[in-house]
Predict the 3D structure of the following.
Amino acid sequence: MKHKSLFIVVAAVIAVALTGLFVISMVVAVQPGNRPVVGSPAPDFKVSLYPSYQAGYPKDIRLSDLRGKVVIVNFWASWCVECRKESDALESVWRQYRDRGLVVLGIDYLDTEAPAYAYLQQYNTSYLIGADLQEKISRAYHITGVPETFFIDRTGKIRKTVIQAMTQAELVSTVETLVNEQ
Amino acid sequence: MKVGVRLPRLLAAVLIVCLAALMAGFAGGGSVQAQAPDPDSLVHDIAKKLNCPTCAGISLADCQTDTCMQWKQEIRTQVVEGKSQQQVIDYFVARFGPTVLQEPPKQGVVLVLWLLPVILLIAVVASVIIVLRRSTRRKADVVSPAAASKESDDYISTLEEQVGKS
């Protein structure tokens, strides 16, 4: 009888501890929210732009500050080979449409500064670039890797997402539609 | 008599040798510390404490992806600039977050996870002690029939003596 009650108490303590461990692991493992889908509002975020890559905007901006403009949020990194395939096209589209209300915002993902600057100089980049500090932006957008691009319309809604390098024709086709919307 | 004289001398000699060895050890250690750390080994040490950002569970030191090579180059640059190991690690944590660390800081949920086994052990030991104490008390509360009958006999004889006196 004595051993039985001892066994029950020890088993209960272990069960409570294991349940606690399970709950904690679930809290740690599960990230809140889901990947934003087309038609949903783009998650707002704050980004510090790299010096020389502010395109006339303040150093610290929020996505919501760009409301009323068409925004291309492009996740990239200097170590990303695929990103290099679309860099020229992004720069070209930015130059072509910036006066019609387009903002291209490059989010530098898991990158270090020196190679990032070398990359930007190599591609003569002039659009807005900022680092994804502490992966806050990439987590909010649940990106799967780089390059990954979100097209956001003038009302702040996501209109298209692309998980690969884009050609200039693809970029122009989407941007042309969005800038014509008022 | 000779043995009695030799023994303290022998002990003194052993003590001197030990002290000399200790001093040599300290001097040796000091000279190692005085040397500038090898950048390669420092880069490796720092990389061992950081995670590969793109592959799960692998340290930066053990990973050869482009991202990791770039990060290691960044570590090397900062080491050559004269930054300490902690300063370099702080830079990576500030830029990429605490998940970059191989061993996350013992705060919040992580601290609970570290303490849980200790708490569990204490709880189990406490439970065992409580249960054993209770069973011991129960044992003490139960009086054996022989002892009870002896107590009763003593009481009756004392009572008879008192009645007889009166």
User: Anything to note?
Assistant: Chain A touches chain B at residues 2, 5-6, 9-10, 13-14, 17, 20-21, 24, 27-28, 77-79, 81, 110-112, 114-115, 131, 133-135 (CB under 8 Å). DSSP finds five helices and seven strands in chain A. Residues 1-30 of chain A form one domain.
